Automatic annotation (TrEMBL):
PANTHER family: GLYCOSYLTRANSFERASE (PTHR43685), GLYCOSYLTRANSFERASE 2-LIKE DOMAIN-CONTAINING PROTEIN (PTHR43685:SF2). Residues 72-81 have a biased composition (Basic and acidic residues). It holds the Pfam family Glycos_transf_2. InterPro entries: Glyco_trans_2-like, Glycosyltransf_2, Nucleotide-diphossugar_trans. This is Glycosyltransferase 2-like domain-containing protein. Gene3D superfamilies: Spore Coat Polysaccharide Biosynthesis Protein SpsA, Chain A (3.90.550.10). It comes from Cavenderia fasciculata. Residues 72-91 are annotated as: Disordered. Residues 114-273 form the Glycosyltransferase 2-like domain.
Length: 473
């Protein structure tokens, strides 16, 4: 009798899975977009029937998918694959697993603003964030949510519930990717966007209902030609808040955007992340950096933009607390506790913006804190193996990590050589550090020849190195 019940339940579930395959592959409801590969269908079914993957029923789910897929789809999987299997290395390399969008609520023109909302866990806050967007008085925008591989229980269903809640009111798209971090999430969202202006908003923060309207009015009143628009960003003051009830919030702090200057931006981040900027900035600069495992992606972006744009950034500031920054219990900042270390890594990422003496000092700070940074860097390199600065930091960490100079130096030298191989910026740092690994050996005389071209490009570099390493050049 038990066998009969188990068999009956298995058959019933198998029929349900077949119906689910049909629903996903054939009907393509308006809320589902680009879920067309076998692997994507499998994950979607597991989301709906999580007990199947635990072996409770002996059901050949992959075989069922193959059957339905072949019956209703005759194209190859590769033709429909929405994302590459390799890790993201640039803004042109999407890593989207699948997406959902409300096709019936698309605008009949490209929106003026694209609001980019990355989210990783803490999905209980996402609905409040999206509601603050839906309350905007200015309506010519699209919303793109990027789930960065959330691991919370039933995360897909939670996000899908939010989609169903707002899809009739918003031009809304949700992208799902593996956990690659905040920068990749923003980059993927921006790459999929159609707006002229980009407005990043993290998935636990909020904005005032008049935020977008005020931003657009500020642009219209301040800019008289397209050239000035190309260097313009718009930002409001910040209000930090805590949530005290289901829909009740209490402000804790206010931050006024300070007066901008390029010299100040070199030593302090003058802006929060939720500023509106032209999409062309992102395109020209290659997006947000994936190397900054400790944070500061937005500071890096603003600094590169200021040096890239002719005349630098033109920030238009609205001195009202339109940006609402959520302060969560137990929030902890690695950079706040290790500011000198993080700033040293930040400086080496922008070696052309700081003095040579500052960069060489930064090398020593990074190397002296190897026990803190070595494992995070190794973990990051597994995901982004082509980031040259990660190899540079890894080499510095190894160089300072042991008294066993012969063994450790060979590992450090290998890291510096990988940094040189991936060094598309023609940065002098990995070349010099690779040579310095040979000091005190017979190879040093030969290695020094690699420095001649570097010294020509940076005439004062030799003097700076002499101050640190002595007159060995």
């Amino acid at each position: 009798m038990k066998k009969y019940i188990k068999k009956k339940n298995s058959m019933t579930l198998a029929v349900s899975i077949k119906k689910q395959c049909y629903y996903v592959i054939v009907r393509h409801p308006p809320t589902i977009h680009s879920i067309v590969t076998r692997q994507q269908i499998y994950h979607r079914i597991i989301d709906y029937y999580p007990w199947v993957s635990r072996g409770r029923y002996n059901i050949p789910i992959q075989h069922l998918i193959d059957q339905r897929f072949k019956k209703y789809h005759h194209d190859d999987d590769d033709h429909h694959q929405s994302s590459p299997s390799s890790s993201p290395t640039s803004t042109s390399n999407l890593v989207i697993k699948h997406s959902i969008t409300n096709v019936n609520n698309q605008l009949d023109h490209d929106p003026l603003v694209s609001i980019i909302v990355p989210v990783y866990n803490h999905l209980e806050y996402l609905s409040t964030t999206i509601q603050s967007i839906a309350n905007q008085t200015f309506k010519d925008y699209e919303v793109i949510i990027i789930d960065d591989g959330s691991t919370e229980w039933n995360s897909f269903q939670k996000i899908n519930t939010i989609f169903n809640q707002f899809s009739n009111h918003l031009n809304l798209t949700i992208l799902f990717q593996d956990n690659y971090g905040l920068s990749t999430s923003r980059n993927n969202g921006i790459q999929m966007s159609r707006g002229k202006w980009i407005f990043p908003l993290d998935g636990d923060d909020m904005i005032h209902p008049k935020t977008l309207e005020s931003f657009i009015q500020k642009i219209s009143s301040d800019s008289s030609n397209d050239h000035s628009l190309s260097t313009t960003m718009i930002i409001s003051d910040l209000e930090g808040f805590i949530q005290t009830g289901i829909n009740t919030f209490e402000p804790l702090l206010n931050w006024k955007i300070p007066l901008f200057s390029t010299s100040k931006l070199l030593t302090k981040n003058l802006f929060h992340c939720s500023a509106m900027f032209p999409k062309q900035w992102w395109t020209d600069m290659g997006g947000y950096s994936n190397a900054l495992w400790f944070g500061w992606e937005d500071w890096d972006f603003w600094l590169r933009a200021d040096h890239h744009l002719r005349g630098g950034i033109n920030p238009l500031v609205i001195h009202k607390d339109y940006f609402k920054y959520r302060i969560k219990p137990g929030m902890h900042s690695f950079c706040k506790d290790n500011f000198k270390l993080c700033f040293a890594m930040f400086q080496t990422l922008h070696s052309n913006y700081y003095t040579l003496n500052e960069i060489i000092k930064a090398h020593r700070i990074i190397g002296s804190r190897y026990s803190i940074i070595q494992q995070p860097i190794i973990n990051r390199l597994k995901v982004f193996p082509n980031e040259y600065i990660l190899h540079l930091w890894n080499g510095l960490a190894y160089e300072y990590s042991s008294t066993d100079r012969k063994n450790i130096t060979s590992i450090a030298k290998k890291s510096f050589q990988l940094s040189i191989k991936n060094n598309i910026k023609n940065d002098w740092q990995p070349i010099v550090l690779n040579v310095m690994c040979d000091r005190g050996t017979e190879s040093f005389l030969e290695s020094k020849r690699d420095l001649f071209d570097v010294f020509k490009q940076y005439p004062t570099l030799k003097d700076s190195l002499v101050q640190v390493y002595g007159n060995i050049f």
